[in-house]
Amino acid sequence: MEASPSNLIFHELIGLYAEVFESTNPKLINICGRVINETRNMLVIEMKDMHEKMVPKKGTTFVFNLPSSSANHDQRVKIYGTLLLSQPENRVKNIRKIRMR
């Protein structure tokens, strides 16, 4: 299944372009780049200058660019980091549980 704004929290985030929109730590705001790793509590974002930043999910709002099937433009989706708090492999499995209801 393809990632969409309605089911993004259940999909793999590695490889997506992300931007920190809001954060409890003002130094993290406007960090943007590709997500290169994800843990239970953190996203690792590789910025344009090839530096990696570890951004906590809790207390942070992210904007992800979803590649669109049409070449016109990507979709931008705002997600609260608390919705992403779990191990990535478990979060991806949760969509199956929701569908079975």
From TrEMBL:
Enzyme's top EC category: hydrolase
One cellular-component annotation, GO: cytoplasm
Enzyme Commission number, as recorded: 3.1.26.5
Gene3D superfamilies tied to this protein: Ribonuclease P/MRP, subunit p29 (2.30.30.210)
Keyword terms, alphabetized: Cytoplasm, Endonuclease, Hydrolase, Nuclease, tRNA processing
InterPro entries named among the record's database cross-references: RNase_P/MRP_Rpp29_sf, RNP1, Rof/RNase_P-like, Rpp29/RNP1
Chief location: cytoplasm
GO biological-process terms attached to the record: tRNA 5'-leader removal
Signal peptide: none
Reaction catalysis annotation: Endonucleolytic cleavage of RNA, removing 5'-extranucleotides from tRNA precursor
Subcellular location: Cytoplasm
GO molecular function, one term: RNA binding
Task of the protein: Part of ribonuclease P, a protein complex that generates mature tRNA molecules by cleaving their 5'-ends.
Oligomer and partners: Consists of a catalytic RNA component and at least 4-5 protein subunits.
Family membership noted in the UniProt record: Belongs to the eukaryotic/archaeal RNase P protein component 1 family.
HAMAP family, sorted: RNase_P_1
Name of the protein in its database record: Ribonuclease P protein component 1
Organism this protein belongs to: Methanococcoides alaskense
